[in-house]
Structure of Selenocysteine lyase/Cysteine desulfurase:
Amino acid sequence: MQYIKPYNHYKALIAGIDTKVPLLNGSYTTAINFDNAATTPPFLAVLEELMDFSPWYASVHRGAGYKSQFSSKLYEEARESIANFVGADSSEHTVVFVKNTTEAINKLSNRLLEIYKDGVVLSTCMEHHSNDLPWRNKYKVDYIELDKDGRLSLEDLKKKLQHYDGKVKLVAVTGASNVTGYINPIHEIAEMAHGHGAEILVDGAQLVPHTPVDMKSLKDPGHIDYLVFSGHKMYAPFGSGVLIGPKKTFQQGSPDCVGGGTVELVTHDYIKWQPPPSKEEAGTPNIMGVLAIVTSLKMLKSLGMEAIDAYEKSLTQYTLESLKNVPHIQLYGNPHDIKDRVSIIPFNIEGLPHDIIANALSQEGGIAVRNGCFCAQPYVQRLLNVSNQEMQQRIANPTLPHPGLVRVSFGLYNTYDEIDQFISLLCKISVNRKYYLEKYNDG
């Protein structure tokens, strides 16, 4: 891969890019954020848009005053902007605003109960807890297996769809793993699911901010039925997320969260619900959060998702090549193939706990990474070859250390120079493992 020019003009678009953070030795350094898979900093354009809008802020759908009408108009127009960004058809899909991806999946799991009844939901062994736990205790859940590199096994998906013989109602799959960055072939999976009478939900939290996404028309056999994602992972951290799905799903039945804004008519003996999506958005809508997402999507579109994808892949390739020079490094997944991968790299250093590595990077270099299991414990256990017996021992004795990884995840504003600083410090940590083990174990 040819690396893209080292100067990154995207940095000028980000708030807080020059923030100084304290180090253990008492000095200060410019913070480096390699924890973008958890949360991205805001675009300056998002902050500016919210400040410009603030004088016009008013309650959505609640008033006849001009400001309320203006706010309501922006709020409703946002649905079309979001649908266009991910290729949803507004004549077929509805856009429901929620707090985040987790709430979106929980809402959908509740709303589909009346439709799926005793149907089977296929999750996968690589899911974030948010696309696993909401399906438990409501449906019969089974898990699609992984191959040796931690990628989803389409062969196992095929076998399970055939095994359940039409009983599978939903395949719930991540668009891109928050642990390994692997991008799943969502349209191929969708076509397989639809061929057996099932629908597909794509957790797009790690996918939508990094690469082009197209839900396609419901008439296309590879279309995506449900897509969810969050603003806080795409430079708009103001408490808003998105659930997109067929209108018919939300037309029947009662919403899972009820109250103001969800009804047309109420007596003590009768309720007439609003049509979707209003019936799914109880309470005063988060117009600021929605406006933040729309502004972020406009910025991403203007930059070009293909260009962003290419640049972040170049950062990933550069880092993987550089990590080869770090002694005792342990990489997970397939470090040689980045074609179908977003900018996430999990690793460990042999002989050093993951928390010590993360703390040392932060306290000695101002470099923020994530360590642990990233809310995907079964997947990390699989990557680390942790047996069920070992996990049972940890359940019986909570004082035992949890298995985990260190995760580097890039945003469009990160640079090769930041990666060089990271690699330099990581080499120092790895060469002096005993020193760091003693230093950070002592607190």
Remarks:
- DSSP finds 14 helices and 17 strands in the chain.
- Residues 9-43+304-441 form a domain with the Aspartate Aminotransferase, domain 1 fold (CATH 3.90.1150.10).
